[in-house]
Fold:
Amino acid sequence: MGRSSLSFLSSLLGLLCVFSPFHPAGATTVVPVLEQALVEDAVAIVTGDVTRIESFWDAQQEKIFTHVSLSVEEILKGDFDTKQLILKQIGGQVSGLYAWVYGNPEFSTGERVLLFLSRNSDRSLRVAHL
Structure:
């Protein structure tokens, strides 16, 4: 290839870069939480099995939430008189609506879990630190 051909290809490549569609990249920032901080911040730490997952639209808050029901096997921290707990996680899918918060945990029915829990503003339980 001659010098003029290389110059032409370089110019063409430059133009393609300038006029190509720009797509911003999405990113999630993950801030690791030390285990000691998880233990201290949690109002409860439990092990158990996920028994039910149900998303719903909260008209008052105008958000989708998901109830995650747990059959509690062991309470490592916290004072509960029940072997069933229901978590209220933000996000989920209702009809054609879908909402997701990056960093939010995903659950599946029958899954065995170890959870560090905190409270939402309405006092319902949720996974601590997402």
Notes: The radius of gyration is 24 Å. The mean pLDDT is 84. The beta strands are 44-58, 63-77, 84-90, 92-94, 97-99, 112-119, 125-127. The longest strand covers residues 44-58.
